[in-house]
Amino acid sequence: MKGNHMKELTKGFFEQNPVFIVVLGLCPVLGVSTQVSNAIGMSAGVFFVLLFSNIIISLLRKVIPASIHIPAYIVVIASLVTVTEMVMHAFVPAVYSALGVYLPLIVVNCIILGRAEAFASKNTPLDSALDAIGMSIGFAMGITLIAFIRELFGSGTITLFPVGGFSGVINIPWFYDNPVRVMALAPGALLLMGYLKAFFDWKSSRKKGK
Amino acid sequence: MSYIAILITFIFINNFILVQFLGLCPFIGVSKNSENAIGMGASVTFVTTVASVVTWAIYYYLLVPFNLQYLQTLSFILVIASLVQLLEMVIQKISPPLYKALGIFLPLITTNCAVLGIAIINITSGYNVMEAFTAGLAAGLGFTLAIVLMSNIRERLDLVPVRKAFRGMPIAFVSAGLMALAFMAFDKALITNLHLV
């Protein structure tokens, strides 16, 4: 029993990583991954929405009639996204404006509707919560990896959140003087995604071969 | 901004797929052959255009008078979902051949980021109703342009040897990246140089 719970949690990390293996919800992944801080902000938003939508939908799974389940899920998700928007607007306005249109677009993020449909509608609230936490961590790892590579090569900096006297921006010596600008722009995101996906496909095919 | 400037902006300069990454899921999923790509493009263009006008009206005639702007996301997605359902039924009734061509794509469009994206962008840009209509049309056309070009590239990719790890999705992303590189030639300066502002 315990092993099963662990599996629900960890399957999102690598085995079913939403970004690189299942390839869902790419719009925010590529759209906001110009800075590490944006990636962390987006991960936090997705984590909150996914966790609560999975729990709520799992609790309501016997109440929602099958014929209107998609609209019902969308209402739950959209309300949670509205809450996220308001909280971010109030407490972290810089992140809110950096995420821009991609924040409300969490509503149509395929990961969240996908997990609701494929997992939360069939499983207990506890398993659904673990599934949501695992998937969010997988998503966070994916988007942060992409943002890290893009920001490192594209502008030679790593932007985190300002704390006290620390401005939040770390300059990486050599890269800062020789930035590969294209990495910070749209084509860089698509090219990087292609190469990373090829790398992960290659890794998983090697694993299967063993 | 003039209407031509809005058209050029959303088709080329801020192309929804290649620059803003809105609507990537269908772009990668449905671009394997050009027939489907054209069907998907036409459906998206249709829905973005109608949804732009409808969500604009909802926002300015329903949400603003009652001070309910914070319900924007929730109301837009519900309106878009029902609109897509309605369009599906109307097309089925009026034109069965068109339904046959677009029918399988319409249900997928509700969760297409491009539709909700253009609805929100119309509001944040402060467009009037005609500008919103133009932006919706242009966003759809830009989507169609990118997905049709992509499907042609992928049809050719089927005929050439590709390394095993790159087969399928990775090579599609790399091709899209190269396309995006070409689209960078369309810069905001284009609008000023053509004296469209």
Kindly summarize this structure in a few lines.
Chain A is mainly α. Chain A has helices at 2-10, 26-31, 36-59, 69-91, 93-99, 110-120, 125-155, 173-177, 181-184, 186-209; strands at 157-159, 169-171.
Largest interface, chains and sizes: A-B, 42 and 45 residues
Our measurement of the CA-to-CA distance between the termini of chain B, rounded to an integer number of angstroms, reads 6 Å
The global form of chain B is globular
Averaged pLDDT of chain B, please? 86
Main-sheet strand order of chain A equals 1-2
Mean pLDDT of chain A: 85
Secondary structure class of chain B reads mainly alpha
Task: Give me the secondary-structure category of chain A.
Answer: mainly alpha
Number of domain modules of chain A: 1
Distance between the termini of chain A: 29 Å
- Rg of chain A, nearest Å: 18 Å
- H/E series of chain B, N to C? HHHHHHHHHH
By DSSP (H or I, 4+ residues per run), the number of helices of chain B equals 10
Which value, in Å, is the CA radius of gyration of chain B?
18 Å
Helicity level of chain A: 55-70%
Largest sheet of chain A: 2 strands, antiparallel
